[in-house]
Design brief:
alpha+beta
Length: about 80
């Protein structure tokens, strides 16, 4: 299944992201289970965590050093914000 495009995102406390989709949906994604090891461990630094951005075209998100999370994971493992 294709996920809707991401149009914006916000970093929240406790390593959470609020993701805004083109459909008008807002979903909450918890990044904390991913923050371990050499590659993703840098996300523990709150200043670096906040540098996440939407990939051009809204296909996903990434951090400056290339860390990313698959778009289907972002959508399927997130909870709708009500």
């Amino acid at each position: 299944m294709l996920q809707p495009k991401i149009i914006d995102l916000e970093t929240l406390s406790d390593y959470k992201l609020k993701i805004h989709y083109e459909t008008g949906e807002e979903r909450l994604f918890d990044v904390s289970p991913y923050i371990r090891g050499d590659w993703y461990g840098r996300l523990k630094e709150s200043s670096y965590f906040r540098t996440v951005h939407v990939i051009p075209g809204g296909a996903g998100i990434e951090w400056p050093d290339g860390q990313d999370i698959a778009p289907h994971e972002l959508y399927e493992a997130s909870a709708e914000v009500k």
